[in-house]
Amino acid sequence: GKASELLAGILPDWPQWAVSLLLAMSAALAATLAVNHFYTSDEKESAEEQKFLNKSHKTHESLLAEFNSFRWSYLSVYLVIMLADWMQGTHMYTLYLSYNVNISALFLTGFLSGALFAPFLGSLVDKFGRKRSCIIYCVLEIIINWLEHYSHFGTLLLGRVLGGISTNLLFSAFESWMTTEHRRKGFPEEWLARTYSDCSIANGSTAVLAGVVAQVLEDLLGHIGPFQGAIALTFLAMILVLRWDENYGEESEGSHAESSLYRQFIDGWKLVASDSKIFRIGLIQALSEGGTYTFVFMWVPTLLGMDPPGGVPTGAVFSSLMMAITIGGVCFQPVEQFFGTRITSKDKAPEISAVFAYIMASMSMAVPALCLCCAPAGVCFEKVLASFLLIEFCVGLSSPIAGMLRSKYVPDAYQGAIMNIFRLPLNAVVVSGTYATDIFEPFQVFGVVSGLFFTAAVIQMSLAIGKTKEVKKD
Questions:
Q1: What is the spatial distance between Cα 264 and Cα 93, in angstroms, rounded to a whole number?
Q2: How does pLDDT run across 174-208, given as a tens digit for each residue?
Q3: Which residues of 379-389 are buried (b: 16+ CB within 10 A; e: fewer)?
Q4: Rounded to whole angstroms, how far apart are CA atoms 417 and 406?
Q5: What number of other Cβ atoms are within 10 A of residue 323's Cβ?
Q6: Which long-range contacts link 209-218 to residues 24+ away (Cβ below 8 Å)?
């Protein structure tokens, strides 16, 4: 129509299908946000919240104002950190290409480093403090982005080793600080869902923004531009983190000082080994995130190989995929509400919602597996593109659910330790997935990814059927 012709005149020389895709996804996102705004309300008091209000002698309004202030102090940091992280992610490949170095060796080093340090890092986070760990993350990221300025392979390798450490901190220190602080401040447990949902929405939104900002910086400053931008953003995040209160793995007065690092480490492992629910949560995370990472490696070469009319403007497709993540994040609360009121009890809603998300993800990855195997490329392009949008929607929907389930089953005292133990099998799946993309046909890899999500759904179903044992919060 006229709108897409007008947009095509303003935007770079993108094919018509890419412009239409961007327009359709933008409209879908706007519609989802509008519907969600009317669907979920801050004003309704639940029975659980009423109990909190009676205990704390606060009004609903004052508790909500306090919670929103806390939520924004966390989200402001999360937004800046994720923007910096996405800006590097979208341009790391092109930077290494310009340096003419062994790219797969560098990426593999990052994942192996992550797997190597994961088992120990979590105990350090819990023992030495989550706020301190977030600051250490910021310092590491500044060093890593500074190292990216040098084309020397050894220097870049060091950056990837440190990157493995910082990635573990990114996905454990920040979340464990937030869940423990949420409980320490006495907010209703169900309000955690709002913060997790906001994080998923923020993750998708900052990715769309990062694609644009990184491109502008690259045009101005060359391939290194996005990394210089990431240094500035990470420094800003560090300043914002300094306002936070500290919290530890063991909150009873002085107990974190008395508990040795060794004990924290051993107790974390014992808990995973002895509690099958925690073990299953870790396994589900490894399978689903491992499948997602493998898909991330696959989508660009798959679409390029299908040779659509006008080529593949990866920036436009990337932005559309990230909008799908944002839509998934926005849909999390309505979906959970639907399952909690129509299908199952409120208590089981996160588990059933997760089963739904993983089955949808599995079905979406079966589409490229079947199409690439059995149909000519020209016929399949639109179906495969739609399946890629659907899996990213599932990622946006399932990540806040996974956060809710971690906070439900994993005790606060060992959040950091156990979340990092989970990253061990995750990194193993990712390394295997990356290796698989080199030796198997693309349709076979998508079949495996579909299988990973289906297995995650089956294990998740076993948690949904079993009795819920409420986690000890401290």
A1: 38
A2: 988 999 899 888 888 888 888 988 888 888 889 88
A3: ebbeebbebbb
A4: 12
A5: 28
A6: 209/83, 210/83, 210/86, 210/87, 210/89, 210/90, 211/86, 211/90, 211/315, 211/318, 211/319, 211/322, 212/319, 213/83, 213/87, 214/86, 214/87, 214/90, 214/91, 215/315, 217/87, 218/91, 218/94
